[in-house]
Give the backbone structure.
Amino acid sequence: MTTQYKGTVWITGASSGLGFSLVEKYLIKGWKVIASSRSKGALEPLLNSDDGLHSEQGALSFVAFDIANEQSVDAVRNALQQESATLDIAILNAGTCEYLDIDEPDWTMMSKMNHINYIGLVNSVEVCLPMLKKADNPLLVGVSSQAVNAAFPKAEAYGASKAAIRYFLSSLRMDLKQFNIDVSCILPGFVDTPLTKKNDFSMPFLMSSEVAANRILGALERRPFEYAFPKRLSVMLWLARAFPKTWLRLNATKPNPT
Ligand SMILES: NC(=O)c1ccc[n+]([C@@H]2O[C@H](COP(=O)([O-])OP(=O)(O)OC[C@H]3O[C@@H](n4cnc5c(N)ncnc54)[C@H](OP(=O)(O)O)[C@@H]3O)[C@@H](O)[C@H]2O)c1
């Protein structure tokens, strides 16, 4: 018997946090999910499960992908094509975050963050574009960050890589319209994941990855150009842009006491 799926979605950064929650939500909604990351991580139990929802029906499969490795693009596309000829949705979510320590700056981190987050997303587009082009009503989604809406201390590398993603996607939208491919840019606020666990500053309106994934799924039904959430954080960062000197006074890095 052939299983009828609502569609096929490729999700990168699927082994933990937001990506993993997106995998779970799409499976529950009856999608075929191709999950990618370097490790299987939290996906392992789902891939081994025999509850009929996941691997047994082929609903969930895993294709290893280091997004920073340009050399692997063709091989990863071939592996995806073994799972499905076309992709209805690609959610390019994989990413990482490191902060600049201005007292002992590691400037190589700027190119490292840029290479993983931004060039990694570009590599992911190169992987999936031919498969999206074959779908009837495809959607390409990239994950940026609300960090691009106001300056945050120590976020020179992370913020710049996420701003590059936002611009890249806005330009790509213009070029992919002719192929009927929609492009959405997601700008999450603070989400409780392994990525934010290491943060030692206050994270206003922090939400769980399950809640964040639900919000994203709901928003993607409308195929927005951009979706920034939660709105309360968007308003706070709008105020930061309207009153930049106040934002600087409140958030500037304090001198190191040592
Ligand atoms: N959490 C937040 O507050 C927040 C806010 C705004 C935006 N975001 C963005 O949301 C996305 C997901 O973040 P998260 O919070 O869910 O973080 P996370 O739990 O650390 O998950 C990051 C995911 O990316 C994968 N990844 C990292 N480097 C990779 C590489 N070189 N190649 C392939 N996969 C790689 C990781 O898997 P492997 O290590 O197994 O490869 C993991 O699955 C990121 O793009 C992040 O910047 C997060």
